[in-house]
Amino acid sequence: MYLVRWLCLCLIIFLGVGCNQGIAPKEELKPLPGLKPVPGFKPEIDSAVQQEIIQEGNVKGSPGLPPAKITPPIGSKKKEGIEEQSKQAQIHYLQQKPMEIETKEIKWYTSFEKGLKAGKEEGKPLMVDFEASWCGWCKKLDEITYKDTQVITLSKKFIPVKVDCDTDRVTPQKYGIRGLPTIIFMDSAGQILHQIIGYRGPEDFAAEMNKVVNEN
Predict the structure, then answer these.
(1) What is the 3-state secondary structure (H, E, C) of the chain?
(2) I need a surface site. Which of 43, 139, 182, 197 has the fewest CB within 10 A?
(3) Which sequence spans correspond to the domains of the chain?
(4) Distances (CA, A) of 26 to 17, 23, 29, 33, 174
């Protein structure tokens, strides 16, 4: 019995010593001799990875780094500043000096009394158009003759007045209007200078206007 125990103990000791001799101890990793760090060397980062870094704000796997700052291209801020200044200058110009719009139609007075008053104030003769809603030739004057550029230009030398014979019965009777359309040129005191009875085309009407201007 004792012999068996002694043999088992010897076997355990023998096996333990063999295992320790068979396992080699770990060696320390040392840098290879002669290798030195290269000064100024920076590892290149792939463009796709760099874009991912910029978007996420931190390098993956390196928590705690501050967010990356995106710098705009050189000169972009200066260009934006110039464009903004130009826009503000245009707005300021339009506010200080409104655009003058050329008149493309005759400016009519619809009151005979107000037309006389304007003629006295501006020292201009009146061009009074007696019309009615049922008058076909009156509408033709509006659609053709009074849309002519030369007629519109010459009208600025007069005070244009329209008298509706359906609503104003006094003024037509005063001037003896018997047919429509009738256009009377008169001074600011209401004295007749010249008159046109019936429709006239742009060219003929402009000639009649020039006649009044030249004679008065």
Answers:
(1) CHHHHHHHHHHHHHHHHHHHHHCCCCCCCCCCCCCCCCCCCCCCCCHHHHHHHHHHCCCCCCCCCCCCCCCCCCCHHHHHHHHHHHHHHHHHHHHHCCCCCCCCCCCCECCHHHHHHHHHHHCCCEEEEEECCCCHHHHHHHHCHHHCHHHHHHHCCCEEEEEECCCCCHHHHHCCCCCCCEEEEECCCCCEEEEEECCCCHHHHHHHHHHHHHHC
(2) 43
(3) 112-215
(4) 18, 9, 9, 20, 131
Q: What is the pTM of this model?
A: 0.54
Spatial CB neighbours of 152, under 8 Å, sequence gap ≥ 6 = 103, 104, 105, 106, 146
CA dist 50 and 56 (Å) reads 10
Architecture of domain 112-215: 3-Layer(aba) Sandwich (3.40)
pLDDT of the chain along its 216 residues, tens only? 556 666 666 666 666 545 445 444 555 555 555 555 555 555 555 555 556 555 555 444 444 455 555 555 555 556 666 777 777 766 655 555 443 344 589 999 999 999 999 999 999 999 999 999 999 999 999 999 999 999 999 999 999 999 999 999 999 999 999 999 999 999 999 999 999 999 999 999 999 999 999 998
CA distance 173 to 176: 5
Non-local CB neighbours of 211 within 8 Å, separated by 6+ positions:
194
